[in-house]
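Q: Can I see a sequence and its folded structure?
A: Here is a first one.
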Amino acid sequence: MATYKGHPYYSVRIDDKNSIRFDQNGRYETNKAQEIAVLDALVPRYFVRLDEPKQTKTKAEPAKPKASAK
């Protein structure tokens, strides 16, 4: 689920037949991948994304001990 905040009643055209419209408080929530892709391309210029997209956590490899020079 992606949540966005912008101007009240802001409208974004997705394609020829579809558009999305922010509510009276300027919020919009969606879980559709096509809408998220279009809206993320417009962030932060026209509105902001309130929730951060889930990123895959990568484990940092532990530092290897240095070999002592003798």
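Q: Show me another, different protein.
A: A second, unrelated one:
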Amino acid sequence: MTVLSLLCAGPSEYQGTGVNHEGENFVGTIRIQKLLGGEGLILHYEAKLASNEVAHAECTLLAPDMTGTLTLWPLMSELPGILTHRAIAQSEAAATFASGSRDDQSAFREEISAAIAADGSLTYSHAWGLPDGDFEERSSCTLRPL
């Protein structure tokens, strides 16, 4: 099993709470759209503040690349384009995907992690660093199936 197969076999909607990089609490929702019988999926993620303002919106393709490496292609409201994130760590129920080395301060770099717990909850996290900045976990949300 992989995170991809677990997400394709599991619920199609999740909701929960998280904290963003500015320390603001938010309500997160994730919708899973299975593609081609589970060969991939689109993850629709949104984080809304208490004011109902959308703090983050993301539409992410998760699928193996041509080498078989599990890969994320996220389109995010804060970024001007897509950064490819390849799996750098995986277990049966979790994966971390990176767009570059966390130590490379010459560029923006990001890691996105997804983990499914035994109770079926999904934790979705973003860690990143700006050029010349520190790399840190910035946002995390734990969501439960609806």
